[in-house]
Predict the 3D structure of the following.
Amino acid sequence: MNETAVCVGTFTAVKTLWEVRIHKINEELQKEKEFRERSAGRLLLVWEERAALAKLKEKVINEDGRAILRIEEEEWKTLPSCLLKLAHLQEWQLHRTSLQKIPHFIGRFHSLVVLDLSRNSIESVPKEIGQLTSLQELLLSYNRIKSVPKEISNCVNLERLELAVNRSICDLPPQLSDLKKLSHIDLCMNQFTSIPSALLNMPSLEWLDMGGNKLQELPDAIDRMENLHTLWLQRNEITSLPETIGNMKNLSTLVLSNNKLRNIPACMKDMTSLRDNPLELEVTLPPCENEEEEEQQEMFGIEFMHVYIQESLKKTGNVETSTSGPSPVTNATE
């Protein structure tokens, strides 16, 4: 009886020992398998990055002494980190690539002068964009951007900013007024209901497009944009203009077609860009003598607005002001 008990106990101990050994062997085999898979994955990733880098290098051209990455109508939803090996690039031109996001490593491209990512599917701008202190042009029109990061104000050499047709942007951070060299801004076809205060404090701003937004009025302080020479405000909901607009001596092009204006300041008697507004006065002009005259739309617009202003001043009994008021601020049409 004792011998049987010893035999059973020995068998159980040996069985347990072998089970432990088998378990350890299986663990080692599993670890070895995972290691091989990771190694294969890393190797595949290395090869993919090499292939991507080779493909990117083919897209780099030298133009006017500038290294440019130019990609048109190819599928690049994301940009690989191997792009960092091309950190010497001075310009990116990526159009219609379905790019969904600007990589966070963008800030390491310190030589970038132009970043043109127009006509993609970008939804946000990373704060690292502010590290591009050499950047002169930031072109992000025709994307899906919803807001503008304040870090753009750190791009101290920025001269041109385009955010047109993103359809969701409704404001700009006030910090953007720190951009002392910014002269050209395109914000058309977004959701602005007023002109951002940052724009009123930009000393170098010369060209501004805010057409196709939801502007209802212009600020009285609009004349603080004293260097502005071109202002596009077509297709908004503007009902009136502040008298201070007459103080903008450098303003030569002001487009206000397709708004809700009913009256205009007398100082703007030669304006031709007020077409398609429900002006209250009914003004008729003598018929044109020939078809060629009818085709001169700009001159027709000038004459119309001149007569309109004259009639408006007569109505208010202030005819003489038309000859002594400020000089016309615009003579352009849309």
